[in-house]
## 1
Amino acid sequence: MTQPTYQQLLRDSGLERIDAQVLLLHVCQQSRAWLIGHGDDSAAPEHIAAFTELAGRRRAGEPVAYLVGTREFFGRDFQVTPAVLIPRPDTELLVETALELAGPGGRVVDLGTGSGCIPVTLKLERPDLTVSAVDLSLEALAVARRNAATLGADVRFLQSDWYAALTGETFELIVSNPPYIEQHDPHLAQGDLRFEPRSALTDEGDGLVHLRRIIAGARTHLVAGGWLLLEHGFDQGAACRALLHEAGFSQIATRRDLGSNDRVTLGMIGPELVHPEDCRG
Ligand SMILES: C[S@@+](CC[C@H](N)C(=O)[O-])C[C@H]1O[C@@H](n2cnc3c(N)ncnc32)[C@H](O)[C@@H]1O
């Protein structure tokens, strides 16, 4: 029996071409340039076996990022396992905003770090920053620490229920992409989300449970002039702005992602104490 070629493997996989290609190149440990030159070669038996197994898992819904173990974020490859959320392109807006607002030598903390994509990127882009990151999940922290070590970023990681392990510490910048999906949102039962940690996706409430906690605790941990930056759902911008007003923040604004959806809301504490009444309108 003749062996299929690499191109035939891709065609017959029943997968979207981009997914099939990523899986095949992962199995062969090759680049796309290699596939152009070798697509019509007979596939090696070990490549056929490994690709067939991964293609079957992909057809059953497993995310490509978990199958290959990495996902690119801000131009770098981050290791991912089913213990962490797969980094999203939308989150690059949070990082870009943080890079814009972080003053020289600032102290930054990322709340709910998952794979560590946010703090590792901040530290590599801005080595002058002192960067900390927390997560409740020890499994997630293990992945984040591996990413920091592999990519050479000096980040302090702590297990913490939001601010619990940060008593007495203050920062110039707090960033967070917390779980913000409402508990009954049908998206939780669709696509990649079925395979991601539920505790990274939903607050098991109205979607604002963690956002409220993070906003309520921020004042204690921000210096005067410090910023809080929050990623949230496309329909949560107004709620986040209202919560920041109530908590006495100023300079409140929401930024939109590439799909023109509200995605990141930010606010500043002080330098003068701003009364919530002063923020209306
Ligand atoms: C939406 S994921 C974000 C992961 C990563 N920052 C990213 O943007 O890809 C939310 C993260 O918050 C963590 N988390 C959930 N509840 C938490 C809590 N009470 N305290 C700290 N972290 C929490 C989850 O384990 C998860 O890693």
## 2
Amino acid sequence: MSLKILGISCYYHDAAAALIVDGKIAAATQEERLSRIKNDPSFPEKAISFCLKQAGITARQLDYVVFYEKPFVKFERIIKQILATYPQSNQLFRSAMKEWVTKKLWIKQTIAERVRVSFDKILFCDHHLAHAASAFYPSPYQKAAILTLDGVGEWSVGTYGVGEDNKIKLFKEMRFPHSLGLLYSVFTAFLGFEVNEGEYKVMGMAPYGRPRFVDKVKKLVEIFGDGSIRLDLSYFTFHSSPEYSYNDKFERLFGRPRDKNSLFFTDQTGYPQFWGDKPKDYAHQVKVNQYYADIAASIQTVTEEIILTMCRYLANETGLTNLCLAGGVALNSVANGKIVKQTPFRNLFIQPAAGDSGGSLGAALYVYHQILGRKKRYQLTHGYYGQAFRREEIERFLKKKKIIYTEYKDEKTLIQVVAQALVKQKVVGWFQGRSEWGPRALGNRSILADPRRAAMKDVVNSKIKFREPYRPFAPAVLMEKAKDYFAIDDPTSNPARFMIIVVPTNKTKANNVQAVNHMGTSRLQTVDERTNRRYFRLIKEFGRLTGVPVILNTSFNLRGEPIVNSPEDAFNTFIKSGLDVLVLERFVVRK
Ligand SMILES: [Fe+2]
């Protein structure tokens, strides 16, 4: 009899469910894809139903359901944190009690009732063990060092460990409140972005600044030889307030926070057309924004220094050259790009859902391997674990909505038609196969465009994304051609496949891929035929037509919405946006 384990993560940010059957991932998805609420943290009822349906089982057939953290341990930490900072923490006390006493402490009951499983099947896994398991067990390594880093789990904010065969041992932990993830989030808030969401924006802003405030950032944080840090808590309030993460002393050091409603641009980012005419005080705004870009560059520089120090320590301690990385900080793709180049680690594995949503997968794998002692057998080679839709379902939808379409029964023709549309500067909504696991679109729910001219950034932005001009678009490149265009040592490595590594763009080719070249770097995705045949063939055909085997790939969603999941989501996005072509499997809809 096969062993079926469901992992769940929720109640913090971006809830998810993952189902493994005999250690192999059967299904995994974030709740937001189905509920259509961006970063939906609520109990992932829809994701769970999908996972069970995908595997063709009922909840009764589950052997275990595992939650990705230990609520009582986390609650204890929050209580201690409140007591240590009382009376400043009075407000935190009230909001925490409301959340915990009414909901979070009852997770076992909630799982029993809503998944319909008995209490004896419900297990809990330590948060950072779940992160560690999510990175090590799906990796190709039999032995590897493990680094987990995030805002905070129960007490841990980061751990060092080793995985060997089917066992993980975490040998050192860094504890709350001295958290690199939280430090980065404080700057995310200061720079006017939403915490847990805007960290990408800080990273995108950083290349436009100079890290001239590194010394100031280091007033807040002491870095030790093992990479662990100590924050000077007199600058912060995240440990005592539910709303604010820094205080007046922080503002005396860094000035006023950036107005979150202001537009961010510098001379180098340009001022996109869809924002209209330049403001009268453009020069003044550029000057103000440059200051914040320099702050972003400074926190990014210090973050990289800390991560690289951690990696060097971990490599020396373990003597290993393989590294598995997980936790929200592992999504800092710029730092990831430097690990293999600047530390003794030679190989890096990052699972696509490296943040808390991936904790659901890690928790399930942890039980399978570590608790039940099953052998490590499967490697994760792609990120397509979400929902797929059959031809008949799509056809029924199109007919019901009276949508005019063309069906290309021959895949070769389909690919030619789409590649030609890209060459003609059309922006294409590309929907096929199972949706992606994790925050990146990897060619199954993607918006695609021609990357050759810089103007395409503005075109995609004015048609659909409306993103700030400093945010990069990513290239998807044929794996065998990746080295021609990008300074990537190993195009087959998972961080490159999953778009979680930023590398320099080769100077000789940068001019050919202007729309995906971000200040001399690219967050690339390498694509091979075995992993995603249709997507690979499309890029290849585009390469044949243009001489550039690279396309611009960005996630298929409207700004502020989750990535599309169903044909209906895709069509709605197509209609509401300026997308020119919609591809639903082999059906093509044009405007
Ligand atoms: Fe986490």
